[in-house]
Amino acid sequence: MKPEIKEKIKRNLPKMLSFFFFFGVITILPLMTIILPKKEFSEIENRVLSKAPEFSFSSVLDRSFMKNSESYFADHFVGRTDWIKAKTQMELLTGRREINGVYIEDGRMVEKLDYPDYKTILKSISAINNFSENTGLKTYVMIVPTSAEFYSSSNPNIDQKEEISKIYSELSEKNIITLDAYSILNSNKDDYIYYRTDHHWTTLGAYYVYSSTAYDMGFTPVSLDNYNIEHASSDFQGTLYSKTLYDGVKSDIIDIYYPTSGVDIMSTDVYTGKGTETYESYYFRDFLEIKDKYSVFGGQNQPVVKIKTNALNEGKLLVIKDSYANSYIPFLSQHYSEITMLDMRYIDVPYDEIINIDDYNQVMFLYNYSTFAQDKNIRKLDF
Amino acid sequence: MVFSSLMFLYIFLPVVLILYFISPMKIKNLIIFVSGILFYAWGEPVCVFIMLLSTVIDYTAGIFMNKFDDNQKKRTICLIVSVVMNISLLALFKYSDFIIDSINAIFNLEILNPVVRFNRVINSVFNLGLNEQRVDLPIGISFFTFQSMSYTIDLYRRNIKVQKSFINFSSYVSLFPQIVAGPIVRYEDVQKEIDTRKINVNMAADGIAVFIKGLSKKVLLANNIGILWTNIKAMDYSEISVVTAWLGILAFTFQIYFDFSGYSDMAVGLGKILGFNFPQNFDHPYMSKSISEFWRRWHMTLGSWFKSYVYISLGGNRKGLPRTLINLIIVWALTGLWHGSSWNFVIWGLYFGVIIIIERIGFGKILEKLPSFISTLYTFILVVFGWVLFDTTDLPSCFSYFNAMFGGNGVFIDGNAKYFIITNILIFALCIFGSTDWFGKIISKIRSKNNAIVEWSAPFVQVILMLVCTSFLVNATYNPFLYFRF
User: Fold this and answer.
1) Which of A117, A289, B390, B430 is most solvent-facing, going by the fewest CB within 10 Å?
2) Is the domain of B355 the same as that of B398?
3) What is the pLDDT of residues B272-294, one digit of tens each?
4) Is the model's pLDDT at B486 over the cut of 50?
5) Is the pLDDT of residue B484 over 60?
6) Which residues of A touch B462 (CB under 8 A)?
7) Does B65 lie in the same domain as B156?
């Protein structure tokens, strides 16, 4: 070869390299994406992945075809979870502590709170006031702060203690008793009261609140040494993990508290919106084998869950709630013969089509602050 | 479709580029035309017909203008048809809501927008789900109408030759790299390359370098600093501290620069891969020493478009000072309005118009004598104030934002501000560094000592950046619906 040509090739080699690298990346990744088998459900992200889009004249015109193609392609992109993990690591390297709505703190993750939606809060408050007034039931309201209140160095804007007391002050005093979850959690914040990788409280956190609010509800709490505590799982990676896929926080432990004496839960009726199924236990142990382990408490969220106990009283409690209630209910079960939980997020008919309000003597609203400040479903009680 | 999406990078681009490279020169423009239409229709499956309509009319106007070469009157009619048509498309689809809302508010009327009325009729027949309340802005309409107009105006002025091939002309309008967000490529810029151009690995590699630079600006810098602005913008302006307010608007200052210049870089890079040389659109604008200079370095193709087709048509500065000033005011009001159809943008444009007039009638001379540090700071701060006008939703919130910036809330720094600083300091540093020409200077210094290092590291840096951007894009659509079952 002539030396000039050799020289020329040598000079252009880096550019050819650029060219082939670029083409390599933009052809190999999509080819692998197309060839590799597709999953329907991502367990690690805890969600159903997008389905292949359907092509039609109308789906093109309203752009749903394009949107669905994009999310289908992204959901099944080769090595998806590894890309996400890499991104989380890189963001942390730049000093960012907030990943996809989750703050990474020392040894734990904390859910970032959105700014409270005051219009929604006011509507929920008025729905609760009306409900209490109309039914005449003795009403308890408990709003539990989320872990951001105690562990977040990053989220100083929203003072949940203050916000919760503002909400409490708007509730009518006639029938409603507000329950203070904040104080006892605050004084025990060095204990394991919130999960590190999930947005829920732990069973211990729920117990503390139960024991400190029981007197306000008119009964003596069962003491801690009356429980056998089972470590049902020690490798729980919850919703906050799913959002970040950050591996730097220790997995969580799920504890189940079994009373050694006293009242037992005899049956659990789950109304799924289509039909009712009855289970012997309140604990759905199958969930301990998959990622969604918190659902061991009463199963995944459903419109109505009703438990019956062998308590020797006529107390029947209606609980209008979010998922924080799921691990709390076993403690309350000691004091009622029947507890019915309504999850308004899954109920789209007037509530009295589903339950008979005359069956109950008390009602409790149990929400975490994060849900309460945003949820537009509590107002459905007004329908 | 947007460049910074997996769909574009990993489906559209490889398919189009492979077809483009393997096909003979003759049908390359056809591929550009078809791919451009698909690219546009991906985001605007209905409004793509508006773009095609504009293309057909301008093409036809050009053909007739050429046919009546010796009849000035008929040539003028062709020009008027083209300009009126393009302006009407803009007026209907971009400004009609703004105009009609303003008229309704002033005269207390309830006129219904004709486009909305039309949408309702179409929906009742075909059920297309068109917007029945407001007019949806067709993406890129401000770009493609301005581009098409540059063709007919330049043809009228005899600066360019007529394009007889419809495919060639429409491939110019629908050239996908620049169709939705500029740069505003004038027909003059690419008239030779539209007919024939050389395409080779070297030029493509240069294009890849520019493209990846732009992609990184958009995905890594703009998107990340943008999160900070999104957070602060949503806060209550009557409670934020001075530092928070400044951090917020500085974040937007960098976001809009890296977003826009990143897009322009991507367009220029893609153009090069396809064999086109598009004009540069940004030249480190935040280093400018006066507002006049800033506008020569920011969105340069828009500024030169207004200069060529509006300012000079109005007589420019050749008709005495008062007329020059009026011309400047008109141009800057229009420049503001081009950015969006609301009063905010008009005021934003006029704000710069007034500063430029002040600089022109004497202050510019003083600026030149000041140390460059001071004149750069002067320019930068005025531009930052401009962004407050630009991106707060209405005038009251604009004023309350300014109030917060100047200590009106009585708090200089608070916990939020400290947190924002700690978590964004590195990205801010990268943004400051990236908006100067220091990086380029460092590279050329290394180059002068050892060129091989720069040449050989480039492909590796590029592939790494490409992969990093990909990881950010995979997660961009990543919104786990965690509440659906628990």
Assistant:
1) A289
2) yes
3) 999 999 999 999 999 999 999 99
4) no
5) no
6) 18, 21-22
7) yes
DSSP H helical segments within B280-414, as ranges?
291-297, 300-306, 321-339, 343-358, 364-369, 372-391, 395-405
B477 and A70 within 8 Å at the Cβ level: the answer is: yes
Q: Is B284 a catalytic residue?
A: no
CB-based contact (8 Å) between A81 and chain B? no
Amino acid at A12: N
Q: Is the pLDDT of residue B481 over 60?
A: no
**What residues of chain A, 231 to 260, have a C-beta less than 8 Å from chain B?**
239, 242-243
Q: For residues B300 and B322, state if they share a domain.
A: yes
The beta-carbon neighbor of A239 closest among B209, B224, B482 is B482
| B458·A90 Cβ contact <8 A | no
- Domain membership of residue B296 (yes or no) is yes
- Split at pLDDT 50, 70, 90, the class of A154 is low
B176 with B238, same domain: the answer is no
Residue of chain B whose alpha carbon sits nearest to that of A323: B486
Rounded distance between C-alpha atoms, residue B188 and residue B115, angstroms: 33
CB-nearest partner of B459 from A18, A63, A77:
A18
Domain boundaries, chain A: 13-76, 109-382
Whether residues A70 and B416 touch (CB distance < 8 A) is answered with: no
Alpha-carbon separation of residue A161 from A129, B426, B475 (angstroms):
21, 33, 34
> B202 in contact with A at a CB cutoff of 8 Å?
yes
Interface of A with B in 302-341 (CB under 8 A): 323
Q: Is B451 part of any domain? A: no
Q: Phi and psi dihedrals of B485, rounded to 5?
A: -135, -10
B209 and B193 in a common domain: no
Q: Residues of A numbered 110-139 whose beta carbons fall under 8 angstroms of chain B's beta carbons: which are they?
A: 115
Quote the domain boundaries for residue B47: 6-197
Residue B479 has pLDDT above 50, yes or no: no
- Say if B125 falls within a structural domain: yes
Are B41 and B93 members of one domain? yes
Looking at the fold, whether B189 and B209 belong to one and the same domain comes out as no
Q: Is the peptide bond before B45 cis (omega within 30 degrees of 0)?
A: no
Could you tell me the pTM of the whole model?
0.85
Mean of pLDDT values over B332-360: 89
Which of A322, A381, A377, A327 lies closest to A351 in space, CA to CA? A381
Contact A26 B205 (CB under 8 A): no
Helices B242-274 and B372-391 sit at what angle, rounded to 10 degrees?
A: 90
Beta-carbon separation of B7 and A77 below 8 A:
no
Q: Which residues pair with A257 in a beta bridge?
A: A229
CB < 8 Å to A295, chain B: 485-486
B443 domain-assigned: no
Instruction: Tell me how many domains chain B contains.
Output: 2
Q: Do A60 and B45 touch (CB under 8 A)?
A: yes
Task: Check: CB of residue A185 under 8 Å from CB of residue A239.
Answer: no
Asked whether residue B157 falls in the same domain as residue B299, the answer is: no
Please, what's the b/e burial string for B72-110 (b: 16 or more CB within 10 A of its CB; e: otherwise)?
eeebeebbebbbebbeebbebbbbbbbebeeeeeeeeee
Alpha helices by DSSP H, listed for B157-200, are 166-173, 187-195
Q: Higher model confidence: residue B38 or residue A74?
A: B38
